[in-house]
Design goal:
This protein is mainly β. Helix content is 5%, strand content 47%. A 16-stranded antiparallel β-barrel has the order 1-2-3-4-5-6-7-8-9-10-11-12-13-14-15-16.
Length: 409
């Protein structure tokens, strides 16, 4: 697979140099993006030792992204372009999730209710592409999510990338590290994320009879650090000693078609990584995703499913693979400037000791479009975390009310 992807890139590069390949106009970067501001109130378990103890019940947060994009068409008809995504929320505290040791900031002091979780990157994605969709398709090289992620359908949304609130915001407190389903970011928006934004090459075929195929190869799950080569198991953004996943292959397909008044979208994707450690109790990591959406007039319904492996890098003779499943279902109805919807999501992580850690989410929301790119909305969401061992600190029941204003430019 990786040789085929690299070989395809070489052939396209050869085509670029054959004949006249001058561009009519140079690449000029354009600016776009969005900014979402949110007010939230949380009512949650806050007794001694519980997740909401000493947490504020009101928060203010925001989430934004700025996109720098540019493209040009060469004289031979091939389009080339560049895209860079800036995340203004990025800061040193951005990856702290209420002191949850499941995050990259494991071991840091609890930071209270972080309404906006933010990002660990300042630049989220940065890549170039070469494209001729009518003949051979599209090739991307750089830091971007792979084919299973980009081709996945999550179902309809009302506010941001989840029915209630964007996926990087929540007003409630996730429980402690003992509940491995505690990270709420993963539940509302399940999609293929095994390779993340690690530097990769991706190829997409032209669409034929509604079907498009995609494949990605990621040498290592890190983003470019100014070096051409990366040592085996040297660095990994989600490192759990003693090893890391590398040589990640990602294959996906999606389908888009209209049948009378029905619009149908569906996808399936498989990703597999190679464990770069030979230690006992370390395993290769696999991930499967599927999703779809059906739209009929003002109604839309759909969802997504993810099944993957966790705890594959921890080592030790007693370690084993543990399954993680994420399911999301949603439906929306629109009338004039109004859009309303309902959402259900559940994340479940099997535990070595038996049973599973779970989080279940129900949400209702509505929004109104005030003008081009300007919306205001509100919603309510119910959270329920359950720990396999019923440890008080690893469970939480919570209700949050959110009001959001979103500007897209």
């Amino acid at each position: 697979m990786k040789k085929a992807l690299i070989g395809t890139t070489a052939l396209v590069a050869a085509g670029l140099f054959s004949g006249g390949a001058f561009a009519a106009d140079p690449i000029k970067l354009g600016l776009s993006g969005n900014f979402r501001a949110m007010l939230g109130y949380a009512n949650q378990d806050d007794g001694a030792g519980q997740a909401g103890q000493n947490r504020r019940d009101f928060g203010i947060g925001h989430d934004s992204k700025i996109n720098f994009t540019g493209k040009t068409t060469l004289d031979n008809g091939i389009e080339v372009g560049v895209a860079i995504e800036l995340e203004p929320e990025s800061d040193a505290l951005g990856n702290r999730n209420n002191g949850d040791a499941n995050t990259a900031a494991a071991g840091v002091a609890a930071n209270g209710n972080r309404f906006s979780l933010g990002e660990t990157d300042v630049i989220d994605e940065a890549y170039i592409y070469i494209e001729n969709q009518n003949q051979w398709g599209r090739i991307e090289i750089g830091d971007r999510d792979g084919a299973s992620n980009k081709m996945n359908n999550l179902g309809p949304f009302v506010l941001g990338t989840s029915i209630v609130g964007v996926a990087t915001m929540q007003a409630v407190s996730a429980p402690g590290a003992g509940n491995q389903a505690g990270n709420p970011l993963l539940a509302p928006g399940s999609r293929g994320t095994l390779a993340g934004d690690g530097t990769k090459i991706t190829y997409y075929t032209p669409r034929f009879a509604g079907i498009q195929l995609g494949a990605s190869y990621t040498p290592d799950r890190i983003e470019n650090q100014g070096r051409f080569g990366i040592g085996i198991a040297a660095i990994d953004t989600t490192t759990l000693a003693p090893g890391a996943q590398g040589d990640i292959l990602d294959v996906s397909a999606n389908y888009v078609m209209t049948f009378g008044a029905f619009n149908v979208r569906a996808n399936v994707g498989i990703t597999r990584g190679d464990q770069e450690s030979t230690a006992v109790g370390t395993f290769d990591e696999d991930e499967f995703v599927a999703g779809g959406q059906v739209t009929w007039g003002a109604f839309a319904f759909g969802g997504s499913y993810l099944k993957g492996d966790v705890n594959v890098n921890t080592g030790g003779a007693t370690n084993r693979k543990e399954d993680e499943t994420i399911l999301r279902l949603a439906g929306t109805y629109s009338i004039g400037p109004w859009l309303a919807g309902i959402e259900y999501a559940k994340k479940e992580v099997d535990q070595t000791a038996g049973g599973s850690d779970d989080v279940t989410i129900w949400g209702l929301a509505a929004r109104r479009t005030l003008g081009p790119g300007v919306t205001i909305g509100a919603g309510i969401r119910r959270w329920d975390w359950e720990d396999n061992a019923n440890v008080l600190a690893n469970e939480n029941e919570a209700t949050e009310v959110l009001v959001e204003t979103s500007f897209t430019f």
